[in-house]
Amino acid sequence: MANNNTNTIPFKSISRRLILYIVLCSSLVTLLLTIFQLQRDYQTDIAERDKGLEQIRQVHLETISQGLWATDTELLQTIIEGLVNIRDVNYAAIIDDNEILLSIGDKPVDDRGTKNFPLNYRYLGEIDKIGTLVVAIDVEAAFRRVLDRALIILISNAFKTALVVIFTIMIFHQMVSRHLTGITDYLGTLDLSHPYAPLKLDRKNEPTKSSDELDLVVRSINQSSDRISQAFALEQEIKEREHAEALLRKSEARLIQILDNSPFGVSIVSRNGRKQLYYNRRFIEMFHIPENETDIESIISNSYIYPSDREEIWLRYKREGTINGFEQQRKRTDGSFWWAYADWSPYVFAGEEAVMIWLSDVTEHKQAEEKLQQLNEQKNKFFSIIAHDLKGPFNSLLGFSSLLSIKGSEIDPEKTVQYGVAVHKSAQQVFKLLENLLDWSLLQMDRMEFEIGPVRVEEIIQENLELFGPTADEKAIHLTSDCEQGIIVMADTYMLDTIVRNLIHNAIKFTPVNGEVTITSRANGKWAEIDISDTGVGIPAPKASRLFRLNEKTSTLGTGGETGTGLGLPLCKDLVERQGGQIKVKSRKGKGSSFQIKLPLKPSELKN
């Protein structure tokens, strides 16, 4: 250790502070006492001056008045010469009719400190003013005398303070500071890794005298040296261990800094207790966890869609020791779902066995896959419709039209009519298919223009009843309506007409001869409910749940052998939802079907 020879410096910081404190305290006391003494002297001086002025008023005014009345110049001269002997009076004058009769001293340049005493004389019982006695006082004389006394007092007190400081420092150095210097020299040269000699001070020891503070310090130092030396080795070992831990913490801090700025969600979980030891900002954002949330562990536990999913993942990790790249759907705090791509690997965090979990949000990727799959299914559906459903009607059209064009003159009129009806039905079927294909394609490309506005429901229903009246008559189907009058919905006229037309067409298609198709409409709260029911063949429950899916093959032949594409109901669902509505179906095998549409009422039509 370094050897600092402190004996070369006679006064250390304690001595300097002691001098400063003595000087400050002595100066403060001296200043206060001097101020008090000077204030008393100043007040006494002022009182004596005021006493002299009062003496002029009580003693000399009457004598001066008599001498002025008798024109006794010699008496007056003697009196005013005596006035300037009064404390601080440096000018006196007798004035009559603004004329100075007698004066002594220098006349002041201003009126500051000037006193005017009226001179009166009683004559024949009346008091006459015969002149004025002017006396000028040196108002600063008392202040100058106080300053002179203050200077003398301060100089004498400073001298006494200097003597006190010198003697105090000498005594303090002899009794304390030189021994403190010896202690510091001893401690500065002390090497705990080698044997040492006990500390001894150069003092006169008196065995009969009790120990003082310095003796206690020496004793404590000597007693502590053994313990310090023994602890030195342990301290070195602890320092080495702390250094290693500091390097580890520094490494972890750098890792945490990197993880905090990572675009991936990172979580470190204790392996045994499954407690969240760390999570970065991106991890919090992925689960939509509020900033002031404290129960993170519960939120993460509840983010699994099924509680068993969490246990299965932990069992897999314990079995395999690591998990590389698996996808799982999770739930956020706002109830929304997202797809997580995760990697699990072992990690030691703050000396505890843990698992580091890396998360990536692949929701958009999964949605893109689902969208691509849906588009692929739609493409296959369109190709199926074009290849199969269009082929049949066109074969019928080509066959009958060819027969009519080649042998039309040979065929009897009754057969010609039958062939014409068949051609017309095939043409209607092709037109219906093309119309639905056109509407569906426009919807998928977001190119169908529509304008939401007030639409009267009974007008749309009535127009479709008139349109499908002949078709229903051909199958002897009773087509009726029971509509509440005056219902106005917020919808697009063309879209609503397409929906009602498709549903009535389907109802007639799957209703046998002598069956019934009923259309009703009612206002219910903020909704208008349109119900199209039939007494047809009905739909089995498993098949009914798939009616509105384009990728499901649900189309069957009608009761009259009518064919379909399976495109009408998915088209209706899209059109209803585009207008802010809902559609659902109720059906039982052999008991008929009921399709219910709910559309928002015009605000002025809302009913309580």
Residue-averaged pLDDT: 78
Name the strands of the widest sheet in spatial order. Answer: 6-5-9-8-7
What low-confidence regions span 5 or more consecutive residues with pLDDT below 50? 1-11, 560-565
State the domain count: 4
Question: Strand pairing plus helix content: what structural class?
Answer: alpha+beta
CATH fold-level name of the largest domain: Beta-Lactamase
Question: How far is it from the N-terminal to the C-terminal residue, by CA?
Answer: 95 Å
Residue share in β-strands:
15-25%
Backbone shape:
elongated
Q: What's the architecture of the largest domain, going by CATH?
A: 2-Layer Sandwich
* Number of helical elements: 14
Rounded radius of gyration (Å): 60 Å
Largest sheet: 5 strands, antiparallel
In the CATH scheme, the class of the largest domain would be Alpha Beta
Structure summary, number of beta strands:
16
Quaternary organisation of the protein chains: single chain
- The ordered string of helix (H) and strand (E) elements is HHEEEEHHEEHHHEEEHHHEHEEHEEHHEE
State the helicity in percent bands.
Answer: 40-55%
Topology:
Layout: H1 13-69, H2 73-83, E1 89-96, E2 99-105, E3 114-123, E4 126-137, H3 141-189, H4 213-260, E5 265-270, E6 276-279, H5 281-287, H6 296-302, H7 307-320, E7 323-331, E8 337-349, E9 352-361, H8 363-389, H9 391-407, H10 413-444, E10 453-456, H11 457-474, E11 478-483, E12 488-491, H12 493-509, E13 516-524, E14 527-534, H13 541-544, H14 568-578, E15 582-588, E16 592-600
Parallel strand pairs: 11-13
Antiparallel strand pairs: 1-2, 1-4, 3-4, 5-6, 5-9, 7-8, 8-9, 10-12, 13-14, 14-16, 15-16
Helix pairs in contact: 1-2, 1-3, 9-10, 10-14, 11-12, 12-14
